[in-house]
Each structure stands twice: as C-alpha cells, then as structure tokens.
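Dear Dr. H.,

I hope your travels went smoothly. While you were away I took the liberty of generating a structure for the chain from your last submission, since the lab meeting agenda had it listed for discussion. I wanted you to have the full record in hand beforehand rather than looking at slides cold. The sequence, exactly as received, is reproduced here:
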Amino acid sequence: MSEKSSQNKSETIIRTARAEDARELREIYAPYVENTAVTFEYEVPSVEEFRARMEQTLLKYPYIVAEEDGEILGYAYTGAFVGRAAYEWSAEATIYLKQDKQKMGLGKKLYEVLELISKTQNICNLNACIGYPEVEDAYLTKNSVQFHGHVGYDFAGKFHNCGYKFGTWYHMIWMEKSLGVHPDNPEPIVWFPQLTNAQLKKCGMTISH
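The corresponding predicted structure, in token form, is as follows:
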C-alpha cells in the first residue's frame, strides 16, 4: 500500500454509545427484526424504547459502537446473564453490524474490546444466545454460530424449536467463552461507569473529551 493510500484509509474507532446514537443504532437493528430470525423480536422498538434499553445497559455494562468517518458500522454490548446473584461473574454478549459491513473484521474487533472491558470488570464468562435453524433458510443461517466459534466461543446447549417466526420453528443455542481463570474468591464486579479513561483506553476504546 502506498503512503498516500495509507493516509487516506479511514480509521475505525471503538467508543461508548451515546443516547443520541439511538436512532442510528435502531436503523442497524431494524432489518434484523423485519427480515431475519437472528432476533426473535417481532416489532422494531421505537427510538425512545431503544434509547431506554441502551441507557439501562450502560448503568452497569458496556455498550460500544464501531465508527468510521462519523458513520456507525455496528455495535455490541453485554448484559446480565439470567440475573441471579450467583451469575454475577457471567454476562450475555450481543452484536449487530450493518448488513453490508459484515465479514470485514468489525465483529471481531468489537468483541475483542468487549472482552477486554469485561475482564477489567472482573467478569469471567461471556455467553451468547443465538437463533439456530434446523435447515438454513432466507431468514436464518448458521453464520452467527460460525462467527462465535471463530472468535473462541464453544457450544454450551440447545433449546429445540423454542422460537417461532416467519411461519417457522427455530432452535436456540447458547455458546460460551471463558475469559480466564475462575478464582476461588472472585473480586466484585466493577460497573462500567466506574472504569477510568485509562482503563478503557487500555481495552482499545477511543475516549471523547
């Protein structure tokens, strides 16, 4: 690559999602609701509902976006796994990319940052809930399972014919990834807003001032 083309190459930054991103993130999510069984949600949430979900997540967990030249290309976040106290050191990971921005390394980059943040929070396990077709169709393929396997997730369990969408019954599987050693006496979870800028930068985040 020439020096000139290298200089013209846009930089992808990873930053914390902001409330004003809600409309743009909803636009990324909407086609997955309307045209796929990747999510089992039937109706696209309103901008207000989407924003409320983001803000609720950010009280404790990371909600991050990949941005290039001011355009958000995708987002990822974690949330509570089941919700009981003993599950505190596990979290559920979720990711969505613009459909024309898949298979470009963005998902891997978002998940790498998400994992580093989770480790900094003292989270030990990440889990992913994934729709899974008996036979691939126009609404659901096995791409998400393949992606999660590629970034180090292992199969954990399968729920059969538990999701009905577009006139078809779909399975749901869980995949899991261990982020390291499980200590005998784990440190308390550090809530995302308590992490310092220095810690976030170390995880690969771009910090706005």
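Two observations you may find useful: Residues 106-120 form the longest helix (15 residues). The beta strands are 12-16, 63-68, 71-80, 90-97, 125-132, 154-165, 168-178.

With kind regards,
E. W.
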